[in-house]
Design goal:
- By secondary structure, the chain is of the alpha/beta class.
- It contains 20 helices and 21 strands.
- A 9-stranded mixed beta sheet has the order 11-10-12-13-21-20-19-16-17, sandwiched between helices.
- Helix 15 links the parallel strand 12 and strand 13.
- Helix 13 (309-321) packs across helix 20 and helix 15 (363-375) packs across helix 16 (385-397).
- The longest helix is centred in the N-terminal third of the chain and has 20 residues, at 114-133.
């Protein structure tokens, strides 16, 4: 019988539910059980693909092309289990499917009600994910906070599952304990309020994870235990950490895994988290630093970390693998447009990453930074839009193609060296934007002379994509004659996947997003080689 763990938030968002859910999965997995993760988002969007990164954070792309919440990235990085559309549920998806069934008479003429039909559809999707993944335990994270109206139907679905099979379902609440500066002590009232709100939905949590800047005091644990009717040993301390990869290790210090398994009537089959414990310890000991500049344009809104979280984590993984820690400099491309003399600050970095993006804002500043990296032998890694802008820079300044640009930037330009993919033209005309890009995993064949081939050690690779535009093949011969190496293509050679400059210490750009497949223990081949080159420059 499959088991289910529901992770819900307290009265504050952005306190680490995703990391908590991923950590629980890592711990359960380390004890010999097959796990799967699901993120339930409350918005009416079908997926995250049409939401601005500055609004909601990074759009994480799965193997099958799902455009999902960034928490799916945490799940993959912690468990190394591949996420697909089955691991992601939104309110929009649920209502869309219920309405489709109603229109197709799949309810056999019955009236369709918000309750129970919406919760039943949520339950169906959760169980479908378990079945597809053959998971012993499914960890389901509910986005948002416990008091939000839009969460009620998801809580009802979880309550219904608990009512039918009480020994197969457990609830974990992640709640924030503030420490007012004037008082200097942790306060549990927000957590008490959150528990009562959850109780009003018919749910009693089995564990409370207390997020705070410092470890939770015994006094506070006693208070929460008494008020919330929980044994004290189920009040888990979750203080701020230097690295999110410390979290599973900290949870295990309180024996969380075994406690959860006991509630679910599961046995510990093995204990195997040594690699994770070693990583956590290693991160704390690293002192030598490498400085990486991330050149982008989404720095004025939400946190840079949320916008580029997979890129940042991939850089972290690679630096740790190379026994360094990283100093990230967030470099706003628009300031290079306003004052080109500020490009000199790039001399302070050991390597430059240009991540993915869209639109024309800040583009000329990014192109200028790529030119500076090329001319000054600064290791450079371009991702998706980074490849497209690197191609434009090469076309203008090496090939002498005046006005070279992208269709996305200027659809009337003479030299659109980056143009829209043929199958995307009609979709753009019809404003069919949702889930219509080239999405998910596609194969790429590597040139054996390339740095990329050396990094991967394989002729054919598979990486995840998210783009509408591509290198215009009409210019490929001119690029190659001018010294650009087309280091990777689609198997039929119709799409440019990787470009390189052979005589540069490291100048590699990819149409795909390698950051999505980076893992804490092993890193990613391209990021690993990029960091090696950056360390070499530092010396």
């Amino acid at each position: 019988m499959a088991k289910y763990i529901f992770v819900v938030g307290g009265v504050m968002s952005s306190v680490g539910k995703g990391v908590a859910a991923a950590s629980i999965s890592k711990i359960i997995q380390s004890k010999g059980h097959k796990v799967a993760n699901i993120k339930c988002d409350m918005y009416v969007n079908i997926d995250a693909g049409t939401i601005r990164p500055a609004e909601h954070g990074e759009v994480f792309v799965g193997e099958d092309g799902v455009e999902a919440d960034q928490d799916l990235g945490n799940y993959e990085r912690y468990t190394d289990e591949t996420c697909t559309m089955d691991n992601y549920i939104t309110t929009g998806q649920v209502y869309q499917e219920v309405i489709r069934k109603e229109r197709n008479l799949e309810y056999e003429g019955e009236d369709v009600e918000v309750v129970p039909d919406i919760p039943n559809e949520i339950i169906r999707r959760i169980k479908a994910c378990q079945s597809k993944n053959k998971a012993d335990v499914v960890v389901v994270e509910f986005g948002g906070t416990v008091g939000e109206y839009q969460l009620l139907l998801f809580l009802e679905a979880a309550r219904m599952m608990k009512a039918v099979n009480p020994e197969d379902v457990a609830f974990v609440m992640v709640s924030y304990l503030p420490t007012p500066s004037l008082l200097g002590e942790q306060k549990s009232k927000p957590t008490q309020y959150a528990i009562r709100t959850l109780n009003s939905a018919g749910i009693q949590p089995d564990f409370i994870m207390c997020r705070a800047d410092l470890p939770v005091t015994e006094s506070i644990k006693n208070t929460i235990s008494t008020v919330c009717s929980l044994p004290k040993d189920r009040i888990i301390s979750a203080p701020d950490v230097n690295s999110i990869y410390d979290v599973p290790v900290n949870f295990e210090k309180e024996n969380l895994g075994e406690k959860l398994l006991n509630i679910l009537n599961l046995k510990v089959k093995k204990t195997n988290m040594e690699d994770w414990v070693d990583l956590s310890a290693k991160i704390k000991t690293l002192t030598d630093e490498v400085t990486i500049g991330v050149v982008g344009k989404y720095f004025n809104f939400k946190s840079c970390r949320d916008t580029y979280i997979s890129v940042l984590e991939a850089i972290n993984h690679a630096t740790w693998l190379n026994n360094k820690k990283v100093n990230i400099l967030w470099l706003d491309s628009e300031k290079y447009e306003e004052d080109p003399s500020k490009l000199k600050e790039l001399d302070e970095v050991d390597g430059i990453v240009v991540p993915g993006g869209f639109g024309s804002r800040g583009v000329e500043g990014i192109i200028a930074s790529i030119k500076y990296a090329r001319e000054n032998d600064i290791p450079f890694l371009g991702l998706c839009y980074g490849l497209q802008l690197a191609t434009i820079e090469f076309a203008r300044n090496i090939c002498g193609i005046v006005g070279a640009t992208s269709t996305e930037i200027d659809e009337n330009a003479e030299h659109q060296v980056i143009h829209v993919m043929a199958d995307q033209i009609e979709k753009i005309k019809k404003k069919d934007y949702g889930a219509t890009m080239r999405l998910g995993a596609y194969p790429c064949v590597l040139d054996e002379k390339s740095k990329s081939f050396k990094a991967y050690g394989s002729k054919e690779i598979s990486e995840r994509h998210r783009h509408r535009y591509e290198v215009n093949n009409d210019y490929r011969d001119q690029f190659e004659k001018s010294g650009l190496l087309i280091a990777g293509t689609s198997p039929d050679k119709s799409l440019v996947e990787i470009i390189e400059l052979p005589n540069h210490p490291f100048f590699v750009a990819t149409q795909f997003h390698p950051e999505f497949k980076s893992r804490p223990i092993t890193g990613h081949p391209l990021f690993n080689e990029f960091i090696k080159a950056s360390i070499a420059r530092k010396k």
